[in-house]
């Protein structure tokens, strides 16, 4: 067994780990980056990039299918599944190639291959070959897709999103389980590429939405295009020749059996923290076994251990992994004099169509933190001018503002160009703008942003009213 001594050890060479390694080095410290799997990051290999490539192909097919409504007839449309997957894979490999090039610029002595686990609060063992003694450690181990054990018994045709990007052709049919972001993005893309898709939702959730009105609209709009089975449990999956036989049970107890080429488990991802021997790290864990940490410093308690990215399960997104990694790496370098880093206004986008975005404080969080102290404005896109011009007049935006200060707090939406409207609104939120200040900004015509203005005007009207249920202040109400 070899022993290495270093200032900072980073576990995981994904987006968070690379960012942490660079920040630790920039802080003037020696650092090692330990990776057990392939280099290239989840985002580039099997996440953000290949999924958006598949969606881009689906959008091309959908544009042709939608063209006749404009009086444009593209003729016989043929989807060449092998060509679709060939482009997805070759462009994906290009993105992975950039990451691999970056890895080559990291000195060999800073890179270690193998699975790291704690043997003490400042010591790791990598496979059976190296002991790393580190003054500070960053956990950036990412997350893995979940598949219930009983589904795994049905064999290799029960897959996760990882497997989709290894396909060399499109299958005939896929059952997608889960109406989270992955289920909706991949389910809709495959549907638009001519694959028979059914999406099973055990409840009524849709992507990251928490506002009941936006959620109901999203279920209605997406349900109009896709075969989504809400309130339907997957009861059993069994192999059946070259296919899988899926038995589902709806809310009324009605059973249904259908055959699919694949079942795609999109029921969430779990942080990779359970094979780290965290009990030897001497840090406090929550009830799911995830280290407790300060979200501004990424420090676990007062220890020399930091965490970043999907591993902490706070908001498992690429931009968050990069930000958190930078904060964790910089603080590992300057430990014990840790400093709060920049945490931005939360922003999420689901690239289904219509797109779904949330930003700032979500509706559910506001109900808990701002009960009786926030107002809601809304716009439906059904009659919004530009959206109607483009035949993308579906969805709804709900915006939230604070009584008294008039500050803009956040929004949830499904609708056209949500990725762009989400950015616009999250920038206003982070800048701490009031609703009135936002309405003073320029709005061109005809643009979907005029829909945002309608929602903000509605919010301004609501904010000018009395709060719905004034909360008496117990300390200053006479007699209390
Ligand atoms: C299909 C899909 C689509 C997505 N689309 C988007 C999107 O559009 N936008 C967006 O913002 N986000 C998206 N995401 C989420 C995004 O990809 C992740 O949030 C991000 O990649 C997480 O980065 P990370 O560094 O935390 O994890 P990773 O990149 O997974 O890195 C963790 C690394 O740690 C290694 N590791 C784990 N345990 C150990 C150990 N014990 N020892 C050594 N190494 C270890 C792993 O092998 C891995 O390489 C998507 C995810 C998926 C799956
Ligand atoms: N555009 C993006 O930014 C993007 C795209 C893809 C993934 N991601 C990230 O990846 C993460 C994981 O995505 P995901 O879609 O796998 O998870 P998710 O947590 O978003 O959704 C999981 C879904 O599965 C359902 N579910 C859970 N257990 C189930 C069960 N046993 N049977 C049936 N349904 C079940 C849940 O109710 C939920 O609808 C997301 O949280 C997101 O942060 C982001």
TrEMBL record:
Disulfide bonds join 43-48. The keyword Magnesium does not apply. Binds 1 FAD per subunit. NAD(+) binds at residues 178-185, 268. The keyword Transcription regulation does not apply. GO terms for molecular function: dihydrolipoyl dehydrogenase (NADH) activity; flavin adenine dinucleotide binding; NAD(P)H dehydrogenase (quinone) activity. Residues 348-455 form the Pyridine nucleotide-disulphide oxidoreductase dimerisation domain. Residues 7-325 form the FAD/NAD(P)-binding domain. It comes from the Bacteria. Keywords: FAD, Flavoprotein, NAD, Nucleotide-binding, Oxidoreductase. Belongs to the class-I pyridine nucleotide-disulfide oxidoreductase family. It comes from Pseudoduganella aquatica. The active site is at 445 (proton acceptor). InterPro entries: FAD/NAD-bd_sf, FAD/NAD-binding_dom, FAD/NAD-linked_Rdtase_dimer_sf, Mn/Fe_SOD_N_sf, Pyr_nuc-diS_OxRdtase, Pyr_nucl-diS_OxRdtase_dimer. FAD binds at residues 52, 141-143, 310. Its EC number is 1.8.1.4. This is Dihydrolipoyl dehydrogenase. Pfam families: Pyr_redox_2 (PF07992), Pyr_redox_dim (PF02852). Its cofactor is FAD. The lineage of its organism: Bacteria, Pseudomonadati, Pseudomonadota, Betaproteobacteria, Burkholderiales. Transmembrane segments: none annotated.
């Amino acid at each position: 067994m070899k022993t290495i001594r270093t200032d900072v050890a980073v576990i995981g060479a994904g987006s968070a780990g690379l960012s942490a390694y660079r920040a630790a080095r920039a802080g003037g410290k020696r650092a090692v980056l330990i990776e057990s799997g392939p280099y290239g990051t989840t985002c580039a290999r099997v996440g953000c990039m290949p999924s958006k490539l598949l969606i881009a192909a689906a959008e091309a097919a959908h544009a042709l299918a939608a063209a006749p409504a404009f009086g444009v007839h593209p003729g016989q449309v043929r989807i060449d599944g092998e060509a679709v997957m060939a482009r997805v894979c070759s462009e994906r490999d290009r993105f992975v190639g950039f990451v691999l090039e970056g890895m080559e610029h990291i000195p060999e002595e800073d890179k270690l291959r193998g699975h790291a686990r704690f043997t003490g609060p400042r010591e790791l063992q990598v496979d059976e070959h190296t002991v790393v003694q580190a003054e500070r450690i960053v956990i950036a181990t990412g997350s893995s897709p979940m598949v219930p054990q009983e589904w795994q018994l049905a064999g290799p045709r029960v897959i996760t999103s990882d497997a989709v990007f290894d396909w060399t052709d499109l299958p005939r049919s896929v059952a997608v389980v889960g109406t989270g972001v992955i289920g909706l993005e991949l389910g809709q893309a495959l549907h638009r590429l001519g694959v028979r898709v059914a999406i099973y939702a055990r409840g009524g959730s849709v992507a990251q939405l928490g506002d009941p009105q936006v959620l109901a609209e999203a279920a209605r709009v997406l349900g109009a295009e896709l075969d989504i089975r809400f309130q339907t449990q997957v009861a059993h999956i069994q192999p059946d020749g070259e296919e899988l036989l899926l038995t589902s049970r709806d809310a009324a107890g009605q059973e249904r059996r259908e055959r699919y080429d694949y079942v795609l488990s999109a029921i969430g991802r779990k942080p990779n923290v359970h094979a780290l021997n965290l009990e030897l790290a001497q840090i406090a864990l929550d009830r799911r076994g995830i280290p407790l940490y300060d979200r501004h410093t990424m420090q676990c308690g007062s220890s020399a251990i930091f965490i970043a990215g999907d591993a902490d399960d706070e908001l498992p997104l690429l931009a968050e992994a990069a930000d958190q990694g930078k904060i964790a790496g910089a603080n590992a370098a300057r430990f014990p004099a840790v400093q709060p880093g920049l945490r931005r206004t939360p922003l999420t986008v689901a690239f289904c169509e219509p797109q779904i975005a949330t930003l700032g404080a979500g509706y559910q969080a506001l109900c808990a933190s701002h009960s009786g102290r926030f107002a809601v404005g809304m716009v439906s896109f059904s009659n919004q001018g530009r959206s109607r011009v483009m035949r993308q007049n579906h969805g709804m935006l709900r915006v939230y503002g604070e009584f008294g200060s008039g500050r803009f707090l956040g929004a949830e939406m499904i609708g056209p160009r949500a990725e762009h409207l989400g950015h616009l609104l999250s920038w206003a939120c982070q800048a701490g703008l009031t609703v009135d200040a936002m309405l003073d900004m320029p709005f061109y015509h005809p643009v979907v942003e005029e829909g945002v203005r309608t929602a903000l005007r509605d919010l301004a009207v609501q904010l000018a009213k009395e709060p719905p249920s004034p909360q008496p202040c117990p300390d200053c109400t006479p007699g209390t």
